Give the backbone structure.
Amino acid sequence: MVYVKDLEDSDLRKVRMSLREELEAIDNYEKRIETAKDAELKKILAHNMDEEKEHTAMLMEWLRKTDSTQDKMFESHD
């Protein structure tokens, strides 16, 4: 297991910024899907949104492996 103290802070900052960007992209796609009129376009946008969700999951997985405190919060939050 990799510990936070062994990483440069910049790696954690990059992951957290990327998470924010991926979540924002999900929100943007959701808004576009809601307002799109064409069914085929809605399907494409939904596919793209799901890819952003995959990216979010990948980043969270890395964060959980890297930051033991963050990982514990997934198991024992209030």
In short: Residues 26 and 49 are 5 Å apart (CA to CA). The mean pLDDT is 90. The chain has one domain: 9-64.
